Structure formats: C-alpha cells, structure tokens
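Subject: Sanity check before I submit

Could someone independently write out the structure tokens for this chain? I want to compare against mine line by line before I put it in a report. The sequence has 321 residues.
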Amino acid sequence: MPDTILDNAALERMVDTSNEWIIARTGINERRIASDPAMATSDMTVLAIQDLIKKSGINPNEIDCLVLATSTPDHVLAPTASVVCEKAGLTGAFGFDLNAACSGFLYALSTGAAFVESGRYKKVLVAGTDKMSSIVNYEDRNTCILFGDGSGVVLLEPSEENIGIQDNIFRTDGNGVNFLSVPAGGSISGTTQETLDGKKHFVQQDGKTVFKNAIRGMSSVCKDILEKNQLTHNDVDWVIPHQANLRIIDAVGQKLEIAKEKVKVNIQRYGNTTSATLPLCLWDFQDDFKPGDKILFTAFGAGFTWGATLAIWGDLRKNTN
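---
Independent answer below. Compare away.
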C-alpha cells in the first residue's frame, strides 16, 4: 500500500461532500494514494512481489510466469507485466496483463491456476494492482470518494492435497460498458482536445445501476458455485468479496445467509483498489484462515464482469532460508 493517506476530511476540502455522507454510502474512511507521480502500477507490483519473495524464501529465478490483473497499466501499449518482470528480476518468467476491471484478480487467479494444473509450470505469480488515482477525476464527488491505489500478489504452486482453487464461475454482460467505463483513450475514442476537455479519460459510472447489478451478480454466482459443488452457506468458512462498497458487501452477505463475522471487510481503510481488493484481504486476514477452511471469493466490475471462486486453504509456504 502507498504511504499517502487520503481521508474523508481531505475530500471534504476538495469536493462538495462530507465524512458522514461518504461513510453512510460507502463505508470508506480513508484510502491510500500513490502520490509520487513516478510511482506506477509496475512499481507497486514489484514492491508486493519483493515482499512475497522475502516472506516465502523462493528464488526469483524459479518463477515461471506472472499474470498481472490491472485496469491501469503503465502504458497503453507494452504490457506492464513485462516491465514488472524486468524490475523484479524475474529472469526466467514470462508475463502478461489481464484486464477484467474489478473482477480482474479472480480471472487472473483462474488463469494462473490453469497453468499450474497443466503441469507445465511450477510457480506462477498472480498479482492485482491498480493506480486508480491516475484515472479518477477529483472534481467528481461520486467517483473520487470510492477509489484508492494498491497491489497484492499470490504464489501458486502444485499440490497433491485437496487444497487450493477448487472451482470458478465467471459471467460477462457487455451492456455494462454503458454504466461504468473510462470512455476515451482506447481505439474507439482516442485522445483529442475534446476528450480531454470533457474529462473522458477518467472513470465514469452510473452508481445506482452498478450498485444493483453488483449485488445481483455476486450473490447469484456465489449461490451457483455452492450448488454446483453440493455445498450450502453453512459449509462456507469465509467470504472474501470485492471491496467496492460496504452496502454492497452487506447485501451480498445477507442474500447468501452468511454470518457477518465470516465476511472479510477492509474497505474502510483502503477504499476500492479494483484488482487489488481481494489479495489485500488475503494479506490483512491471513492469520484468521486455517488449513481446510472453505473460502468463497466473489467480485464484480466494469464490463460488466463478475464471478466467484471456491478455494480450500492450505498451509502457507514458510521461509526456510
């Protein structure tokens, strides 16, 4: 997480809003911002990877692949994962970016797991990183209160035990582009004076539509994956939902009939870090998870993209160096 804290009091001085209004509608108290212009998505990812390498004791040269979920790449052209591999010294790895907005980490996790399951690769890094402050309009009170910057990364390795990623279900509705997107900067609308003046290079969303679809999408796909695996809500030990809005998180938990204490929440400290919310929850609450715990991940993002992943927790790799 970046060091700079952007709290609600600071936003009160920037736009027409209040601490009470923000908390009531989002549950967010503060968010972290990469205030140094030189701190890019690649740099945050490298720092997360370095922490993981130190914690696990693995040799960077052993990493086979990096799948980087991000909506804020360093460049439109040239994958940020390539830059990360170079900066982090992952000399034996190939890397690529994956963009599924706030669902990106789940999509990337599934992709990385498939690489390991194929038997071709032994160590795959899956990162979720976004510098949302680079695409947020801090004059728009409806969006600037939501987003923060951050990065998280996990290491996937093969196991003969019944642990790890068990199943995934993903969904897409392209009509969602009309309700949450960055309108300009891509091939459909490049950079012109008109797009700059219209602030079309920033996140724009129809909050009410996104809110309703997020609750419906995440709760529905979670029920589907539980039914598919012959499980009920009573079998779930933990739910790790995308940290978009506390009211969305609470509503999804209620629809799943999951006890509130089983639903992990850290949005109050970080805001919505897009691809980074799920791995940051893993990092913050890792001491709560026990081997054998069934963990249900779910996310919803622009596109619309959404999904759920079922995993069984195992023993974390320990640093043996």
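---
OP: Matches mine. For the report I'm noting this point. The chain has a mean pLDDT of 95.
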